[in-house]
Amino acid sequence: MEDCTGYSLLRNPRLNKGTAFTHEEREKFGLLGMLPEAVETIETQTIRIHEQLDNFEKPINQYIYLMQLLENNETLFFKTICSDPAKYLPLVYTPTVGEACQKFGQVSRRPRGLYLSIKQKDNLKEILRNWPEKDVRFTVVTDGGRILGLGDLGIFGLGIPIGKLVLYTSCGGVPPEYTLPIVLDVGTNNEEFLNDPLYPGLKCKRIRGKEFDDFVAAFVEAMNEVFPKICIQWEDFPGVDAIKILNTYKEKVCTFNDDIQGTAAVATAGFISISRLMKKRFIDQHFLFLGAGAAAFGIADMLVKKFERDGLTREEALKQIWMFDINGLLIKSRTDLAEHQLQFAHDSDSCTDFAEAVLKIKPTAIVGVSTVGGAFNQQVIENMSAVNERPIIFPYSNPTSHSECTAEQAYNWSKGKAIFASGSPFAPVEYQGKIFTPGQGNNVFIFPALGLAIFATEATRVTDDILLTAAEAVAEQVSFSDFEKGLIYPSVADILKVSVNVAIKIAEDIFNSGLAGVKRPESISDFIRSKMYIPEYK
Ligand code: NAI
Questions:
Q1: What is the CATH number of the domain that holds 76?
Q2: In-domain check, residue 529
Q3: What is the pLDDT of residues 331-388, one digit of tens each?
Q4: Which of 418, 441, 464 is the last residue of a domain?
Q5: Is the shortest distance between the CB of 325 and ligand 1 below 6 Å?
Q6: Residue 281 lies in a domain
Q7: How many domains does the chain have?
Q8: Which residue's CA is the nearest one to ligand 1's atom 9?
Q9: Coiled-coil regions in this chain (predicted)?
Q10: Is the dihedral of CA 382, 383, 385, 391 positive or negative?
């Protein structure tokens, strides 16, 4: 702080304490007269922020206010978010961040993060060295190609990495100075942006193919050279690119894709937690997917891993997972299946009615990843209830309008028997005098904890096994009393506590598998806690 004084100190978000500077500090750092007389604690400052936020009616205005706070006083910003995560996470991340990205151009702010244009492919190392922090450990990077359910938002997609990294810090304790939001600018197919003189990104259609692949390769190389301990998290890339990038780099560098692996881990956590709370073995679960696309494969792959970890062979595991797509049940005799779909195709008669498939296969759980809103109709839920005492119903398609059924439908049609979790949020439902709280498979239970463990251990890779360990650890955090209310995931209000416990388990796994970049400490729990960022003034 000695080098930064007076007005500059108040303008430095990392060092600024505002009215919490003591009289001695005000004198020492040339702040006298720049602050009102009272010296306040961070708790008092937080109360003021809460009050000011409550004066805004629209979430987008609360978002803008919070982002200004982040640019003004980082410690107070994180203190505020951590004080009530259930209230503030929807403001700094989904759903509000979606609108914020759409309006990114109009929301004037100081730059936070890096814009890397494909035109700069050969200068990436130099550009990365412009970033003021020299030891960056975590980057969330997008190309803005498929932002939430909003489509191509070009460089305005940067709002997503910014928001996500805020969650790494507030929900996982990753120190903010080690994080770096990045958008790769490869053009946009958003016609509105292309015709808008105020759109500040590259004004051309998305550059694809080899040129795109070479740019991504240059980016990965530059990041690893300039920041040797970096973990790259890919975010909101269009599906095909996302899978290709992940497969190209996951064995070579420390990287993961939250849309694919984080979602798979959180869905798997739900099934593990249900098995545990119902006192059933996970290996007794049978799954039927509606939809056999990218999301289905991400989740099914992790379920296979879990079956294998619990003692089944791969062949046995595959027998317990069925899929049903737009052309019906995936069976061996079908000629329209892609290579990766064949492993989930079984010897069976054809079936093109999903409700009938439920009676035929008798799954304990159905997973909706079809994008078809309403596809889990009354007949489907009733058939699930006929073959299960407690049918597990997971409509995972986003956004809400694409959800295969609503929470209310699942509880009503199953006569209160369903165990329900969805991709999109649903409000609690009352059925025959009892309140059911639907679960939401929110990746926030996975990635901040993963981030903290990777940061602390300086992990060199993120393997599927590590993600499965994260899923198991999340499942352990749910209590029987939560389950009684219908919950199968921990409460977001407890997110920091949950993340620490999950991070400890992940870190153990990282050390056990020889993927840590630091020496194994005596107590992993103390070690993890010692690495965490705590939003208090120093
Ligand atoms: P996708 O387009 O790769 O797959 C969709 C699948 O649904 C295809 O197999 C298709 O044949 C099937 N389908 C379409 N209409 C159908 C119908 N009427 N009956 C039966 N099957 C039908 O899409 P993707 O990426 O797998 O996403 C699916 C949904 O899952 C989306 O709503 C997405 O929001 C959600 N989701 C996606 C994740 C991901 O990692 N891509 C993660 C979590 C959720």
A1: 1.20.1370.30
A2: no
A3: 999 999 988 889 999 999 999 999 999 999 999 999 999 989 999 999 999 999 999 9
A4: 441
A5: yes
A6: yes
A7: 4
A8: 292
A9: none
A10: negative
Which residues are CB-neighbours of 81 under 8 A, at least 6 positions away?
A: 66, 88, 89, 92, 166, 170
Q: Do 145 and 288 share a domain, yes or no?
A: no
Quick one: pLDDT band at residue 481, thresholds 50, 70, 90? confident
Ligand 1 atom nearest to 402, measured from its CA:
32
Residue 400's pLDDT is what?
83
Q: Does residue 477 share a domain with residue 386? A: no
293 CA to middle of ligand 1, Å?
Answer: 5
Mean pLDDT of the chain: 94
535 preceded by cis ω (within 30°)?
Answer: no
Q: Which atom of ligand 1 is nearest to the CA of 259?
A: 40
Residues 274 and 311 in one domain: yes
Residues with Cβ within 8 Å of residue 475, at least 6 apart in sequence: 269, 270, 272, 273, 276
Residue whose structure tokens are 């507030």: 170
Q: Which two tokens stand for residue 81?
A: 């978010």
Shared domain check, 271 and 388? yes
Q: Which residues are known catalytic residues?
A: 93, 164
Q: Are strands 321-325 and 328-329 parallel, antiparallel or unpaired?
A: antiparallel
State whether 356 and 337 are in the same domain.
yes
Looking at per-residue pLDDT, the higher value among 107 and 180 belongs to 180
Predicted TM-score (pTM) above 0.85: yes
- Is 70 exceeded by the pLDDT of residue 2? no
Helix (H, G, I), strand (E, B) or coil at 257: strand
Looking at the structure, tell me whether residues 317 and 386 fall in a common domain. yes
Q: Which residues contact 212 (CB under 8 A, 6 or more apart)?
A: 118, 186, 206, 241
Confidence bin at 108 (pLDDT 50/70/90): low
Instruction: Tell me which residue has its CA closest to atom 35 in ligand 1.
Output: 397
Supply the CATH number for residue 426's domain: 3.40.50.720
**SS3 (DSSP) at 215:** helix
Rounded Cα distance between 286 and 366, Å, is 9
> Closest ligand 1 atom to the C-alpha of 294?
26
Structural domain boundaries enclosing 466: 445-521
Find out whether 226 and 210 touch, Cβ atoms under 8 Å.
Answer: no
**Cα(287) to centroid(ligand 1), Å:** 16
**368 Cα to the center of ligand 1, angstroms:** 8
Looking at residue 483, its pLDDT comes to 84
Last residue of a domain, one of 237, 253, 269: 253
For the segment 482-506, the average pLDDT, to the nearest whole number, is 92
Q: Are residues 151 and 128 in the same domain?
A: yes
What DSSP assignment string belongs to 62-81?
Answer: HHHHHHHHHHH-HHHHHHHH
Are both 406 and 333 inside the same structural domain?
A: yes
